[in-house]
Amino acid sequence: MTYVANASNFRRALLNTFGRPDWDWKTVSQSEDVCLTYRGYIKFLETDLLDVYPIRDDRTKSKYKKGIEYIAKQMLARGEAFAGAVRQKYKDHVRLSIHASTGADKLSISLLPTSTSFTTPWHCTVAYKLDGTVVSGMRSEFDADPSMHLVYQDGRPSYYCETSELLCWGEEKGGIVYEPIYPAGWLIKPAVKNALGMRDIDAAKVRQLAQINSPIVLRGFFNAPDQDVFVQKAHEFGQPLPWKFGLLLKVKDQGTDSRGLNNVLSSEWMPFHYDGLFKTAPQVNAAGETVMVSTPPRFQFFTAPTASPRTTGFTLFSSSTQVFGHLPPWLSADNLADKTWSVCTESFGSSKLGGLPLISRHPETGQPCLRYHEPWPQTKTRFDATSVTIDGVSETESRAICDAIDAVLHDRRVAYYHSWEKGDVVVSDNVLMMHTRSDFTAGSDRELWRIHFD
Questions:
Q1: In angstroms, rounded to a whole number, what is the distance separating the alpha carbons of residues 106 and 387?
Q2: Which of 144, 241, 271, 384 is the most exposed place for a label (fewest CB within 10 A)?
Q3: For the chain, how many structural domains are there in total?
Q4: Which residues pair with 452 in a beta bridge?
């Protein structure tokens, strides 16, 4: 109440101390930054003040528009005074702003991880699309969009979500509840605790959803993990694919016993990768030569028979959808599309592969997907190093490209850190996603079961 009662006095003191007596709209409007802010003010004032100053007989649309423009200009004058106060008080600091700008006088940041233009959180709501992208807009816009529905949390409206049959199953036992995972994936749980089990999971819908946005974390369906039930469920998702260790791999710290899988069965931090890179098969190429080619699986199917420590042993998932949105300006999906890479390691039968496409199209969605393995020098592991180079470029450029990709894969705006709870079931698209594991205490009982399927 004290602030509201004195707000006008505060504003006047600000203008008297830091304002410019010669402030003139025609002059300041020549600045691109000023115009960007002005257009933003106009956009929201038109809706904010419509109930306060409704259009009626004595207030036409034209008069209302002129009034809005006047208020916006007054706000700009106060904004310039405020900027002057900031400059004087914090001479050695950089000013941040939630409004779009050229970057000359301030740095603009978005407070929301949206793919849409700058919007102030108190003027908008957010909507989650099925592929994990987030957009912002006025509630009225989403209410009028038949593809969106309002989600309530704790009895209160929270956000909008894209409507899909893929998020609708198990109704005969109460159905499911779901929520988007930041920055990628979906968390799905039974709407009624313990009402749905592993056998009730709609494998076809979960598989289709995973192709659009992974990982799909299914929690509360498998509270008493059973190996036979897990294997049986894998057959519902697709064609399970055995490897040299068999169909099911128990991922657990085995000390120095790598079993030919490098540091997979250790407690070390792993490089970002996609599964099956080093699973090879003979193939006759265009020249009639028999060569070994990589045959990675389409999906991963995980469960956790034990809980992992809450602050370690994370599985990190990074989606190509997010990766390509955060690459530096000099690197993009388009200029990576024609590049190939090579990899070699003493593990996995002394594997050496070359000419691997850095970008592949997803077989179902057609979206560009990163196909890559993070370089892993001997300084990072007590097992075998993994050398990765970009083909056809200098060593310096290869290292720069790899460093840029690695930085984005680990970026918290891209990488989801999954902390495993006992019974968690995870389905992840091995084409769309890259993944890795953080280190954990050696000898702990952290254990995952993994099956690949096509």
A1: 42
A2: 144
A3: 2
A4: 241, 300
Strand-pair partners of 249 = 450
130: Cβ contacts below 8 Å, ≥ 6 apart: 162, 164, 166, 209, 212, 213
DSSP per position, 281-348:
EEEE-TTS-EEEEE---SEEEEE-SSPPPTTS-PEEEEEHHHHHHHS-TT--HHHHTT-EEEEEESHH
CA distance 214 to 130: 10
- Is residue 322 exposed (0-12), middle (13-18) or buried (19+ Cβ within 10 Å)? buried
The boundaries of the domain holding residue 429 are: 224-453
- Rounded-to-integer distance, Cα 201 and Cα 210, Å: 13
Q: CA-to-CA distance for 66 and 39, rounded, in angstroms?
A: 14
CB atoms within 10 A of CB 175: 16
Task: Please compute the mean of the pLDDT values over residues 416-437 and round it to a whole number.
Answer: 97
Domain edge (last residue) among 66, 92, 108: 108
Q: What is the pLDDT of residues 3-38, one digit of tens each?
A: 888 988 988 998 999 998 888 999 988 999 899 889
Tell me the per-residue pLDDT of 128-137, one tens digit each, with 9 for 90 and over. Answer: 999 999 999 8
167 within some domain = no
Tell me if 130 is assigned to some domain. no
> Do 280 and 411 reside in the same domain of the chain?
yes
Q: Kindly report the CA angle at 449 between 443 and 450, in degrees rounded to 5?
A: 125
Nearest Cα residue to 410 out of 340, 313, 323, 300: 323
Q: Evaluate whether residue 416 is within a structural domain.
A: yes
190: which strand partners? 176
In the beta sheet, which residues pair with residue 178? 188
| Cα–Cα distance list, 57 to 46, 54, 68 (Å) | 18, 10, 17
User: 328: cis peptide before it, omega within 30°?
Assistant: no
Q: Which of 195, 155, 160, 156 is nearest to 174 (CA)?
A: 195
Helix (H, G, I), strand (E, B) or coil at 450: strand
Per-residue pLDDT band for 103 (boundaries 50, 70, 90) equals confident
Minimal CA–CA distance to 340: which of 296, 392, 386, 387? 392
